[in-house]
Design a protein that fits this description.
By secondary structure, the chain is an all-alpha fold. The chain is built from 10 helices and no strands. The longest helix has 30 residues.
């Protein structure tokens, strides 16, 4: 596999400084409420299901990028990868904290689902090729970029009035997904770059994580007693339809041979989140979820924050 050279680094590559490693605090309720968005319990469980994957997916992504570093010589790309790894490490640890609280609620499906996820990612890391793993990593990050844009764009509908800590954790995660949107792309392009592998990675990663997420939220909703009720199922399908109507056009642009994530403009709201954080908005662990329609994030006042 070829090493990257300075000549192959895109001249307009976004600097590593756009990435910031943040030590966030999210004061989750204890005991946790699985339906942290009481108005949208189905959405709560979709997000919970996705969260269960993060302590297995993100360490796998980290190990994949560590292996990629052994083949990279360009110092700027190495710096990018190091910051990417540091951000991903903070993500999965935050999800571990939330997932533990979710398990403490008493869901029997969580432990076997986590065991399946561990088996999946262990197998990818040990039995699949290096090319497969960097393609999966880029495929997941490309899909994650579209998901982040969708969640930010539709934040008021999806999160209005929801628990501030869980909402803030999810939106923080995707602010940082958007920040490091170019890293796995640059790694894949430098170390392989084949269009067919990039699209295969996108299809495989998206299909895999969506399938495992579907399995988990189905089981969670079954334990809630909501899966077999027609009215609840219609709400779920309506929600999924809304989400996919917003996701599919964004996913389609990834199929273009000329796709480059640096050409995807960052949402204004995430830019404001980053700017306010730099200026010391210490309560970003608790956003005011009644004011998500505002063009910039609104933290809860200090006296209201836990």
């Amino acid at each position: 596999m070829p090493e990257i050279s300075a000549a192959r680094v895109p001249p307009d590559r976004m600097p590593a400084e756009r990435m910031t490693v943040r030590r966030m605090r999210f004061p989750y309720a204890d005991p946790a409420e699985a339906h942290w968005n009481k108005a949208r319990p189905e959405f709560s469980q979709i997000v919970n299901a996705g969260s269960l994957a993060m302590p297995f997916l993100e360490p796998y992504m980290i190990e994949t990028m560590k292996k990629a570093k052994e083949r990279i010589t360009d110092p700027q790309l190495l710096k990018d990868v190091d910051l990417y790894i540091a951000q991903e490490a903070t993500h999965f640890r935050q999800h571990q904290q939330w997932n533990k609280r979710l398990a403490d609620v008493g869901y029997a499906c969580i432990a076997p689902h986590e065991a399946q996820l561990k088996q999946d990612y262990d197998a990818f890391a040990t039995k699949r090729s290096f090319t497969f793993n960097i393609a999966y990593a880029e495929g997941f990050e490309a899909m994650g970029l579209t998901l982040g844009h969708m969640l930010v764009e539709d934040r008021e509908y999806l999160f209005k009035g929801a628990d501030p800590a869980v909402t803030s954790m999810i939106l923080w995660h995707f602010v940082e997904e958007i920040e490091h949107k170019t890293v796995t792309y640059d790694v894949f392009k430098a170390l392989d770059g084949r269009y067919t592998w990039r699209i295969y990675g996108l299809a495989y990663a998206t299909g895999h994580i969506f399938y495992r997420t579907w399995q988990a939220y189905r089981q969670l909703l079954m334990e809630d007693g909501r899966w077999h009720h027609v009215s609840n199922r219609l709400k779920l399908y309506g929600l999924l339809g809304r989400m996919f109507r917003k996701l599919l056009p964004r996913l389609a642009r990834i199929l273009k041979p000329s796709y480059d994530p640096r050409e995807v403009e960052d949402p204004a709201w995430t830019k404001e989140w980053s700017r306010q954080h730099r200026e010391g908005a210490a309560t970003f662990g608790e956003l005011d979820t009644t004011r998500l329609s505002a063009p910039a994030p609104v933290p809860l006042p200090v006296q209201q924050a836990a």
